[in-house]
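Input structure tokens:
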């Protein structure tokens, strides 16, 4: 923060990460030292739990459902 350019642009140029790790190493270790993947999974599950689908006209929804069903029926069967 000694550079005037940094001070001038800090608040507008800073981007907060989606999966922040702001704590100390001790806090990280106490939390079980989660990997970035583990942290991302926690974030994704929380985001999905909060998701509310946007309102959609029932005719549009029915049309989309029909389209997806038709396309799915055209896919080849894959043995797993």
């Amino acid at each position: 923060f000694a550079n005037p350019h940094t001070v001038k642009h800090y608040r507008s140029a800073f981007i907060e990460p989606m999966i922040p790790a702001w704590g100390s190493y001790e806090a990280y270790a106490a939390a079980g030292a989660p990997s970035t993947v583990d942290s991302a999974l926690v974030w994704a599950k929380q985001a999905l739990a909060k998701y509310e689908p946007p309102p959609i006209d029932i005719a549009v929804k029915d049309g989309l459902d029909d389209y997806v069903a038709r396309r799915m029926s055209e896919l080849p069967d894959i043995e797993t």
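The mean pLDDT is 87. The CA atoms of residues 19 and 40 lie 7 Å apart.
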